[in-house]
Amino acid sequence: MLELRLVQGSLLKKVLEAVKDLVTDANFDCSTTGFSLQAMDSSHVALVALLLRSEGFEHFRCDRNMSMGMNLNNMAKMLKCAGNDDIITLKADDGGDTVTFMFESPNQDKISDFEMKLMDIDSEHLGIPEAEYHAIVRMPSQEFARICKDLSSIGDTVVISVTKEGVKFSTRGDIGSANIVCRQNTSVDKPEEATIIEMQEPVSLTFALRYMNSFTKATPLSNTVTISMSSELPVVVEYKVADMGYIRFYLAPKIEEEEDMAAS
Predict the structure, then answer these.
(1) pTM confidence score
(2) Proliferating cell nuclear antigen PCNA C-terminal domain spans which residues (predicted)?
(3) In whole angstroms, what is the distance from residue 80 CA to residue 188 CA?
(4) pLDDT-based confidence at 191, cuts 50/70/90?
(5) What letter would DSSP give residue 124?
(6) Which end of the chain, N or C, is less packed with Cβ atoms under 10 Å?
(7) Cα 223 from Cα 211, distance rounded (Å)
């Protein structure tokens, strides 16, 4: 038997909005430690990892580890029926083929339940190696979303370069080029408005903007975003989910195009 009760139901709605365009079908894994998801996008370029720790739920019962295959668009449709202040409860029986979402309004005067069929999804669980990153940037998530959106009107790729001076986002396209530099600033009044850079060595990598813009759909979850980079490794773009977990997006850097440019 599985029963998860989340008082801040809007968190689950925001999580789904953040991943449903990237991943169509995925297995949600439930264990005593929490509720998690790990899936690649259809083109196998990006990976999303979500963790909601059990202690973040008001009530968390998971008698045995279970994996629930869901179509994320369908799940998002169900969650759209929940009010932003609703308490959301997920229930599933061991070995059952449905999951029930229950939405309760804060004053308990309206309770809805929606049942959704589960799917059988073959998915290999990808071990994500723990890595030491050469450069870690923490910055306001709205700022990062704005930069990705602005640059995608000019080019298809973004070069993210981290140096002592700051983090630089650059692109070039048919109409021209653009560079946006965010300097480290820790002396702001509100900590979530700070840009903090921890760097062992400078890193400069190229990524597809289409994916970066997709990742920024998680902006409503957190005021800050953490971007971790090392040469040769996928970038990790992480948004905290309240104080109960995180959503992380992994994206491999683009290699071949840079070499083509160097060759020409």
Answers:
(1) 0.93
(2) 127-254
(3) 36
(4) confident
(5) P
(6) C
(7) 20
